[in-house]
Write a structure and sequence with these properties.
This protein is mostly helical. Helix content is 63%, strand content 4%. The protein contains 4 helices and 2 strands. It has a two-stranded antiparallel sheet. The longest helix has 43 residues. The radius of gyration is 38 Å and the shape is elongated. The N and C termini lie far apart (84 Å). InterPro entries: DUF3619. It comes from Rubrivivax rivuli. This is DUF3619 family protein.
């Protein structure tokens, strides 16, 4: 049984579908030029060769093929360089996050210092902020 996104298929159903498709293609191939039919024949032979290769087992049943654990990109490196190459992106990401955090903290601190400087240089006395009539003072105070 073969499962696909369209449902479960048996080899017999697939064989019938393949036969119908081959018949339809063969009927349509009668009206093609010699050059097109030759190109189709070569493509068909190549497809069959690839299909044969994909069906062949990679190793005999008693043998297991094991990888070396190295990717092709890192195959020429020494073991310590390989580890460094694998850890470097993570280290760069952590360093970038730390730098972003420090920059945002500095920006927040500068913004707070700017607000404090504006409050201290304003003509409004600091005791006015705690006065219950402060809202009334803001309504009646002349704008600068």
């Amino acid at each position: 049984m073969i499962r696909s996104r369209y449902g479960t298929h048996t080899p017999a159903i697939e064989a019938r579908l393949g036969a119908r498709l081959a018949t339809g293609l063969s009927m349509g191939a009668d009206g093609t030029s010699h050059e097109v039919s030759e190109r189709l024949r070569v493509a068909r032979e190549q497809a069959l060769a690839r299909a044969r290769l994909s069906r062949q087992p990679l190793a005999s049943p008693g043998h297991v093929v094991l990888g070396t654990g190295r990717s092709a990109a890192l195959a020429g490196f020494a073991p310590w360089r390989e580890r460094l190459a694998l850890a470097l992106p993570l280290l760069l990401m952590v360093a970038g996050l730390v730098a972003i955090e420090q920059w945002t903290a500095r920006e927040r601190m500068l913004a707070a210092a700017d607000i404090d400087a504006q409050l201290l240089t304003d003509s409004l006395p600091p005791t006015a902020y705690s006065d219950p009539g402060f809202a009334e003072y803001l309504r009646t105070a002349p704008s600068q």
